[in-house]
Amino acid sequence: MRLPSISSLLCFAGLLALPTNAYEDPNIKSIPLRTHSLSPPYLDSDFQSRWFDFGGDTVVRADKYIRLTADRPSQQGWIASRVPLTATNWQIELEFEIHGNGNLHGDGFALWLTKERATQGPVFGSTDKFEGLGIFFDTYKNNRPGVSFPYVMAMMGDGKTTYDQAHDGKANELAGCSARGLRSAPIPTKARLTYFQDKSLTLELQYKTEDSWTECFKLDAENSNIAIPSVAYLGLSAETGELSDNHDIISLKAENLYSLNRNANKGPSANQGKSRPSSPAQAPKEPKQKGSWTWFLFKTILFFGVIVGAYFGWTIYRTKARSSRF
Question: What is the pLDDT of residues 32-45, one digit of tens each?
């Protein structure tokens, strides 16, 4: 029996993502999802990514960016997670940069949460007739009067509907907003997508002032068709045509969100007139959440304590056994 090495213990500890207060609502806690996050140097020691695949014209510069397309015509590049995103509630924050040398530029990039994975195609570098959610950052205006570009829009694909390329997705739009200044912005440009199952889908953008978010849209699940697959792969893709741009991904951060109080999102009147919860399902959950993490940490420490104790016990027994021979 061998005692686990220090490096293996550190690796194990690195996989334990403790709750944080990253989400703005104090009643909501977040847990980082390493399986769906990217940051420099992006690649492992063997120049591979453990959790993502890359394809098409994508180029990885480990100290700066993942370039989906260079500022050259007729390029397509993509990134796709190797495992599906199965969290019920989540937040994805993406830092990106769209820039190039020409006065004319295109076409744009997309963020995906779909059943399909790593399939190159004609919709911003990914497949058409997809099933799931696509968020399109469109920088070139084909035929959409009255709309300023860049334009950011959401489309919910059913696996059968074709993207309305000729009219910049007008026939498919679930929600969207104009974002003039998104391309070549003087500050880090970011997008933050937040999803609560059966409740809401919100997209916020940072491109005007650093640390200041502009709401692009917020959809209520009761009044909108938000049908994100329960098992969906996270992906990014980009495309250039006759016009081109650099489409760079700087970082990608995904987090699992959960509520400490199930009544937190029901409004201030949720518990008025009630002296106690009407059923066990309505009881406050905060003590249970804290206790569960404490208990998990205790069990983890106890587990390693048992291994260490067994190792030293066995070592002492082996030493005595050897000495008894003489």
Answer: 999 999 999 999 88
